[in-house]
Automatic annotation (TrEMBL):
Chain residue ranges for the region called Disordered: 1-23
PRISE-like Rossmann-fold domain segment(s): 91-379
Source superkingdom: Bacteria
Taxonomic source organism: Kineococcus rhizosphaerae
The protein, known as: Nucleoside-diphosphate-sugar epimerase
SUPFAM superfamilies to which the protein is assigned, alphabetical: NAD(P)-binding Rossmann-fold domains
CDD domains: 5beta-POR_like_SDR_a
Biased composition (Pro residues): 12-23
């Protein structure tokens, strides 16, 4: 049986982050956000527009951020990129997109080619000053096929850790970035985020609406909000990456000479324990919290029959997304919460180079729940 934990009061209404500086665009700056409708791309586009950058967004559907010029192109076709990006001449490109494949070999082939083709089109235009690539902590943990296996580097992860001796599409993307930068003479930065939390609908990997949908279903069916992961994650410390923090980090690196041509970890700056955070989150969501059992009770298992319940909630609350698979990603949250290893990243490299961004993970998560409720993605 899961361990029941006691709910605690919500935190006081303080800010969830340090003030975000306005990253003023350099003269003539034109940013291209690749993946402008995802969690990372949406937050980045919001900050770029607010700071006065001319901003284009490459995505299948138009970005939700007002002021972004939409570029519709097939990221996995050089011919499409050549046609749609001709004459665009951005000065800065931010690569925040990837496409999950069935095997890591295919991930390497497809996602490596995406970076190679994109920069092969933009590089010869002669305008590019900086390219930023968003990856993640699977750089240190290995791909899904070999996740958390073998000899992993010690935590907190440091950017100069040796690459693992396995195929990893993050390595392929970095190598394409490095080669293109050397060939065409632009600067670069790599941003290794942990689990990214932010606002975007239809994203394949999104912890907050996943847990929000889970809470809505168990509340509707009279069940506890049981932590679906491992005791290692429940009891240990972990960090997360807020999408706003990641966006600011990219803009900082793109406009800071001391950050040029460097790979960085980027997390919120605090650490949390799920055993303390879980009852806080449950209280905000209006459900009874419970800790893990001896074996993880995964979301994929618990939510196997959730679609009819979600359909009823959509009707009762007037929710905007009837397709539960576009709100919740059970598999991805299971992989994060079910890990049997400690995962957290060091940010000393960023701090010494001058980055001071800081986010309260707990306050940011609760604020995102409220934002999804206001947007009627989650029921109130």
């Amino acid at each position: 049986m899961p361990t029941v934990v006691v709910m605690t009061d919500s935190p006081s209404p303080l800010p969830d982050r340090a003030p975000t500086p306005v990253r003023t665009p350099p003269p003539g700056a034109h940013a291209l956000v690749v993946g402008a409708t995802g969690i990372t791309g949406t937050a980045l586009a919001e900050q770029l527009v607010a700071a006065g950058w001319r901003t284009s967004g490459l995505s299948r559907r138009p970005p939700a951020v007002e002021g972004v010029e939409h570029v519709r192109a097939d990221l996995f076709s050089r011919e499409s990129l050549q046609a749609e990006l001709a004459g665009l001449a951005p000065t800065h490109v931010f690569i925040t997109a990837w496409a999950r494949q069935d095997t890591e070999a295919e991930n390497v082939r497809v996602n490596g080619a995406m970076v190679r083709d994109l920069l092969a089109v933009l590089g010869p235009q002669g305008s590019l000053r900086h390219a930023a690539l968003v990856t993640g902590l699977k750089h240190y943990l290995g791909p899904f096929e070999a996740y958390g296996q073998g000899n992993l580097p010690d935590t907190p992860f440091l950017e100069d850790a040796d690459r693992l001796d396995v195929e990893n599409f993050y390595y392929a993307q970095e190598d394409e970035l490095f080669a293109a930068a050397a060939r065409h003479g632009f600067g670069w930065s790599v941003h290794r985020a942990h689990t990214v939390t932010g606002f975007a609908v239809g994203n394949a990997m999104n912890l907050v609406p996943t847990l929000g949908a889970y809470a809505a279903v168990v509340r509707a069916t009279g069940r506890p909000f049981t932590f679906p992961g491992s005791r290692t994650q429940w009891d240990g410390v972990v960090d997360l990456t807020d999408a706003g923090q990641l966006a600011d980090h990219q803009l900082w690196a793109a406009t800071t000479p001391a950050a040029a041509d460097t790979a960085f970890n980027v997390v919120n700056g605090d650490v949390v324990r799920w055993r303390r955070l879980w009852p806080r989150l449950a209280g905000h969501l209006g459900v009874e919290p419970a800790g893990p059992g001896d074996e993880p009770l995964t979301l994929a298992e618990q939510m196997r029959e959730a679609e009819p319940v979600w359909a009823r909630l959509v009707d009762e609350h007037g929710l905007v997304e009837p397709d539960l698979s576009k709100v919740a990603s059970w598999w991805h949250s299971d992989s994060d919460l079910g890990r049997d290893v400690e995962v957290l990243a060091d940010m000393t490299r960023s701090r010494l180079a001058g980055f001071t961004g800081y986010v309260s993970t707990e306050r940011a998560l609760l604020g995102l729940v409220d934002r999804y409720r206001r947007a009627r993605v989650l029921p109130a």
